[in-house]
């Protein structure tokens, strides 16, 4: 410490102006060198540093302004998107509701149409069964009538002789003749 204070206080210890020597004592020369360098930097670098800091400040401020504008734009877009989303959700709910009603209506219409078709088919079935029953009854009647006629003819042929046969034919011809006269 003594050397440091001596280097500042004792001017007589310095070499004369005619000769130039390097002082190799680090503790004595470092504070002087640092103070000179800092003084020169402060004196000459203050303007450059201020310009650099002002430019940096302006860039930061402009970036902040741009960011704020972008943020406001993003908020506006977000609000528009939310409004659109609400509209779309409302439309989707309407479509869903209308779709459910439409499905229910179509379901009821389909059930009604199916019931009507089933009723028609039941009626067709009943009519077909009735006609088939009538046809079967008619076929049975015809067969019974044919069998009865064949039996009657067989019985008549076995019981009748030729004279009785001729009288029956004559009587029938007489009946037919009288029926023709009545119808004319």
TrEMBL record:
It comes from the Eukaryota. It is found in: Membrane; Plastid, Chloroplast thylakoid membrane. InterPro entries: ATP_synth_b/b'su_bac/chlpt. CDD domains: ATP-synt_Fo_b (cd06503). One of its GO terms (molecular function) is proton-transporting ATP synthase activity, rotational mechanism. GO terms for cellular component: chloroplast thylakoid membrane; proton-transporting ATP synthase complex. In plastids the F-type ATPase is also known as CF(1)CF(0). Belongs to the ATPase B chain family. This is ATP synthase subunit b, chloroplastic. The lineage of its organism: Eukaryota, Viridiplantae, Streptophyta, Embryophyta, Tracheophyta. The gene is atpF.
């Amino acid at each position: 410490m003594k050397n440091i204070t001596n280097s500042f206080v004792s001017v007589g210890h310095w070499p004369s102006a005619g000769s130039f020597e390097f002082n190799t004592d680090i503790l004595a020369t470092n504070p002087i060198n640092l103070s000179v360098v800092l003084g020169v930097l402060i004196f000459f670098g203050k303007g450059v540093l201020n310009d650099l800091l002002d430019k940096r400040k302006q860039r930061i401020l402009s970036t902040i302004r741009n960011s704020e504008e972008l943020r406001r734009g993003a908020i506006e877009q977000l609000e528009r998107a939310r409004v659109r989303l609400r509209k779309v959700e409302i439309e989707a709910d309407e479509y869903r509701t209308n779709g459910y009603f439409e499905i229910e209506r179509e379901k009821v219409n389909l059930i009604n149409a199916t019931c009507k078709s089933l009723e028609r088919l039941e009626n067709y079935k009943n009519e077909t069964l009735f006609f088939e029953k009538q046809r079967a009854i008619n076929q049975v009647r015809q067969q019974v009538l044919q069998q009865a006629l064949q039996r009657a003819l067989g019985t008549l042929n076995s019981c009748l002789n030729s004279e009785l046969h001729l009288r029956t034919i004559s009587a029938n011809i007489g009946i037919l003749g009288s029926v023709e006269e009545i119808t004319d």
